[in-house]
UniProtKB/TrEMBL annotation:
Pfam families: Lectin_C (PF00059). The keyword Disulfide bond applies. PANTHER family: MANNOSE, PHOSPHOLIPASE, LECTIN RECEPTOR RELATED. It comes from Panagrolaimus davidi. This is C-type lectin domain-containing protein. It comes from the Eukaryota.
Length: 169
C-alpha cells in the first residue's frame, strides 16, 4: 500500500510541477524526493514513514536528521513548486518559517534570509495573531500573492524536507 501511495505521489507531483523547474531525473535525489532546479534541492521525505503528520518541531528535527530542513521559500517559483506538492496531496505542508517573538518577526529554520514571505492571499502579516501561532504551513491553493498560513507549532500537519541535491558523479 505504501508503494502505491508513493507512486501516486510522484505521478501527481510530476504532472503538477512540470512547468516549475521540477525534474525527477536530473539530480541524484533519494527515493521519495523530487528535484527542483531553482534551488538545486530535493523535496520530500523517506517513503517508509508513509502519510504521517507531525508537529513543526518534530518535522524540523526529522528533516535535520536527514540532512536538510523544512522548506524555505525565496521566490514565487519556489512557492508555486511547494504549493503544487501540497495541492497534489491535498494537505497543508509545514515550511521552515517560524517566529520566536510572538509573530513580530519571522525566520527560516535553515538560517537563510527572510527576504520573501508569501502570506496567504497577499496579507502583509500572518493571518492568525494568537500568541504561539508561530509556525507556518503552505495552504494547498496557489495564489500569486501567497499561500502561507501561521499555526500553532504543536498542531500536526503533513511535512516535506528540503535537502541539497547530491552532486552528479
Amino acid at each position: 500500500m505504501k508503494y502505491l501511495i508513493l507512486i501516486i505521489y510522484f505521478v501527481c507531483c510530476n504532472f503538477l510541477v512540470k512547468g516549475n523547474n521540477a525534474n525527477l531525473s536530473k539530480a541524484n535525489c533519494s527515493d521519495g524526493y523530487i528535484y527542483f532546479e531553482g534551488t538545486h534541492s530535493c523535496y520530500g521525505r523517506d517513503p517508509e514513514i508513509g502519510l504521517t503528520w507531525s508537529t513543526w518541531p518534530k518535522a524540523e528535527q526529522y528533516c535535520e536528521k536527514h540532512g536538510g530542513h523544512l522548506p524555505s521559500i525565496h521566490s514565487i517559483e519556489e512557492s508555486e513548486f511547494i504549493v503544487s506538492i501540497s495541492i497534489s496531496l491535498n494537505f497543508n505542508i509545514w515550511v521552515g518559517l517560524y517566529s520566536v517573538d510572538e509573530n513580530y518577526s519571522w525566520k527560516w529554520s535553515d538560517s537563510t534570509p527572510t527576504d520573501y514571505i508569501p502570506w496567504f492571499y497577499g496579507y502583509v502579516y500572518p493571518i492568525d495573531y494568537r500568541v504561539n501561532a508561530s509556525c507556518a504551513y503552505v495552504y494547498p491553493e496557489f495564489d500569486q500573492r501567497g499561500s502561507l498560513v501561521n499555526d500553532f507549532c504543536n498542531n500536526e500537519q503533513y511535512f516535506i524536507c528540503q535537502i541539497p541535491a547530491a552532486k552528479n558523479s
